[in-house]
Amino acid sequence: MKELTSFEGLQCANCTTPLEGEYCHHCGQSVHSVLRPVHGLMEEFLETFLHIDGRIFHTLPPLMFKPGFLTLEYFSGRRVRYIAPFRLMFVMCLLSLFVIHIDTDLITSRSAEQRQQKLLIGQSGSFADDTDTSDVQRDLNKKLAILEAARADNTGPTGNATIVSQIDATEQKYRDEAKQRLIDLGKSPAAAASTASAPVQASEHEDGYSKATGPVHIGWLPDFANERLTLLRIHMVENIKALSSGSLSSRREAQERLITNLFGALPGIMLVLIPVFALVLAVFYLFRRRLYMEHLIVALHSHAFIFASLLLFALAGMLQTWLTPHAHWVIYVLGTIQVALTVWIPIYLLIMQKRVYRQGWPMTIVKYGFVGWIYTWLFGFALAAAGILGLAH
Fold first, then answer.
1. Where is the signal peptide (predicted)?
2. What pLDDT does 284 receive?
3. Which end of the chain has fewer beta carbons closer than 10 Å to its terminal beta carbon, N or C?
4. CA angle 317-83-53, nearest 5°?
């Protein structure tokens, strides 16, 4: 498209104001048409991307290594070369939670594999502490129930015959150990063999769970709210049931569902927590005559740094998991990075609070301690709320 070099005699197509440049000084609309060839759209996309990319290079280094610099620059009016505080915080929040979610899934899967491997290698039944036959039978039922759930997960077209054979061997080992313990407790060999070979007893949690899923009725709430609370309660009980007494596959599904719901709820909860944190800063620095918006910018930059640090911490953990089997020395390098981040985060926030609010070190340290203590409680409540929401969906 041919570029316009002279705007004399042209009017804005939106408000008919005479134009003096590429953008109307009255309504802000561009003189360029949005109807353009595809290559024009690609050029605009690349220009926008490179512009944002340039601001990233100006923003991230001071964010990580110069406490309070971005905040003071924003207060001074030098804002164009940096990413806006809210956008910076929000992007860092989403990226860090996404990577931490993946890292958590890897840890959960690895822990589940380790538990199953420990179960299938034929560990001792540990019946030595049982003092009567009922204790032996109860412990045996618990162990056989776990094995039965593992057998169900590995039976069928997609099952693993080797694991099933290991489960059978482990089951026989448990039964033999239970029979021997019953004999030690004075039971005859025939009676001990009969007791140890009894079928697995079914779990007796169904009645309790069905009672817990009854309808919720709060008199001062409308019917749709009570129905919604009832549905959330049913979901919560079903998730808890799956986590505590389901098969291995159902437990894994419940864990994945809980983790996904937890990380899905955290961004919205953080959007509520950050303004509350800014309000706490406003209370502690009431006599510094700062606007609430200034405290909010401090909170946004603080959380952007925290999320960026958590992102690096999680990436280091993932690299440890992937690279350690191939190069064991990386565990020391990446572990050092994680330790450095752990130490740098509280130091960074303290220096930032000192530089932004310009108080002496003693008063800054005292306020830093109180603000940190209050924020810890706030974050704990937020995390608990996210966990409850995760269980209820």
1. none
2. 93
3. N
4. 70
Number of CB atoms found within 10 A of residue 243's CB = 17
The amino acid sitting at 138 is R
State which of 21-25, 51-55, 149-153 shows the largest mean pLDDT: 21-25
Task: Give strand pairing partners of 237.
Answer: none
Distance CA 155, CA 165 (A): 11
Q: What value does the mean pLDDT take over residues 151-163?
A: 64
CA distances from 96 to 167, 181, 302, 367 (A): 40, 52, 14, 28
Q: What is the pLDDT of residue 54?
A: 72
pLDDT value, residue 279 = 95
Residues 6+ apart with CB under 8 A from 187: 133, 195
Task: Determine the pLDDT at residue 204.
Answer: 43
Length of the chain: 393
The rounded distance, in Å, linking the Cα atoms of 301 and 370 is 19
The count of other CB atoms within 10 Å of the CB of residue 300 is 24
Q: What angle do CA 54, 58, 63 make, to 5 degrees?
A: 135
Greater pLDDT, 247 or 321: 321
Contact partners, residue 17, CB within 8 Å, separation at least 6? 11, 24, 25, 26, 27
**What is the model's pLDDT at position 68?**
94
CB neighbour burial string for 334-353, b if at least 16 within 10 angstroms, e if fewer: beebbeebeeeeeebbbebb
5-9, 112-116, 135-139, 185-189: least confidently modelled range: 112-116
CA gap 356, 150 in Å, rounded: 57
- Which single residue is written with the structure tokens 């405290």? 295
